[in-house]
């Protein structure tokens, strides 16, 4: 699994991020002056690290510049500072896998939520789990059709309703079916109409209540899918969902050559929620467990 992670992360993603590493090395090839540090801070902004982290990094690098280090020393300090953001997050003890284990997938329309759910289904299927998909985004016909296509492709059953049906009813039927059949994993898709924030959050709360009536402590995971390409907007989305819905983990989608990618750091710093998965492409296998060190190596164009 980790071998595949390195292969995926260091191909499409690092293709662009190595440019950041090249710029950093060029900047640090000489002792940086004030203008260089201003340029450096702008580079961090453009990488979506956010103003707080960018400012802190520049302050620490200014102190390091007095010692006349080589470019590798600067990059090592940047990596060390950013890695500390991820390692500082308290990792909650994983709950034992229930039968079925219920995963609620949330996120705004266009974030890659539905595709991510299908990739999760493929991941668990490859682990030998018996998976069921609940097409709970009943207000978007394309989402149901998309999951039907994925289900047919992966040979995974889907529970759905009529268009504009009650999402909580879909969740209820899916959990009842999973219990009756002794299935391992239930993945529940949800609507993503963030512009109707109050209605959406009430809907998600209802889905959660229905799940808990069927299975104790369900959903056992709630994953928030964020589009890495939208930068700071994804942080705003994370704040909103986390305010109304207890998020257990984050999936960063579209973290490929088109993404700036640094947004993972401020999300973890502010919300203290672990990033569990990253999406690196369109194929079913392009969902990879998140590894902070590999991610930072790609972000900074480093080999180790």
Main features:
single chain; 304 residues; alpha/beta; 8-stranded mixed sheet; 11 helices; 8 strands; disordered N terminus
Question: What is the topology?
Answer:
Blueprint: H1 2-27, H2 34-46, H3 51-65, H4 71-87, E1 101-106, H5 113-126, E2 131-134, H6 141-154, E3 158-159, H7 167-181, E4 185-189, H8 197-214, E5 221-227, H9 232-244, E6 249-253, H10 264-271, E7 275-279, E8 287-289, H11 292-300
Parallel strand pairs: 1-4, 1-5, 2-3, 2-4, 5-6, 6-7
Antiparallel strand pairs: 7-8
Q: What can you tell me about this protein's structure?
A:
By secondary structure, this protein is of the alpha/beta class. It contains 11 helices and 8 strands. It has helices spanning 2-27, 34-46, 51-65, 71-87, 113-126, 141-154, 167-181, 197-214, 232-244, 264-271, 292-300, and strands at 101-106, 131-134, 158-159, 185-189, 221-227, 249-253, 275-279, 287-289. Helix 10 links the parallel strand 6 (249-253) and strand 7 (275-279).
Q: Low-confidence parts, pLDDT < 50 over ≥5 residues?
A: 1-17
Our measurement of the CA-to-CA distance between the termini, rounded to an integer number of angstroms, reads 18 Å
What letter string, H or E per element, gives the SSE order?
Answer: HHHHEHEHEHEHEHEHEEH
Total strands: 8
Which secondary-structure class do the elements indicate?
alpha/beta
Count helical runs.
Answer: 11
């Amino acid at each position: 699994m980790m071998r595949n992670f390195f292969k995926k992360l260091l191909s499409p993603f690092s293709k662009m991020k190595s440019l950041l590493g090249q710029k950093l090395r060029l900047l640090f090839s000489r002792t940086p002056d004030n203008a260089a540090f201003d340029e450096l801070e702008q580079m961090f902004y453009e990488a979506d690290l956010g103003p707080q982290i960018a400012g802190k990094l520049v302050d620490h690098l200014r102190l390091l510049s007095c010692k006349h280090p080589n470019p590798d020393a600067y990059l090592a300090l940047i990596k060390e500072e950013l890695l500390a953001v991820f390692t500082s997050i308290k990792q909650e003890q994983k709950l034992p896998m229930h039968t079925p284990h219920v995963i609620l997938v949330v996120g705004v329309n266009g974030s890659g939520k539905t595709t991510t759910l299908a990739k999760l289904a493929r991941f668990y299927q490859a682990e030998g789990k018996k998976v069921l998909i609940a097409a709970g985004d009943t207000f978007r016909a394309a989402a149901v059709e998309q999951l039907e296509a994925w289900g047919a492709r992966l040979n995974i059953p889907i529970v759905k309703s009529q268009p504009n049906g009650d999402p909580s009813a879909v969740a209820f039927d899916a959990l009842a079916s999973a219990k009756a059949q002794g299935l391992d994993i239930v993945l529940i898709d949800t609507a993503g109409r963030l512009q109707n924030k109050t209605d959406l959050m009430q809907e998600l709360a209802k889905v959660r209540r229905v799940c808990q009536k069927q299975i104790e402590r369900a959903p056992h995971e709630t994953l928030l899918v964020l589009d890495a390409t939208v930068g700071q907007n994804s942080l705003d989305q994370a704040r909103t969902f986390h305010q109304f819905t207890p998020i257990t983990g984050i999936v960063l989608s579209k973290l490929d050559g088109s993404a700036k990618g640094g947004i993972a750091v401020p999300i973890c710093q502010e919300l203290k929620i672990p990033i569990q998965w990253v999406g690196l492409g369109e194929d079913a296998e392009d969902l990879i467990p998140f590894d902070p060190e590999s991610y930072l190596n790609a972000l900074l164009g480093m080999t180790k």
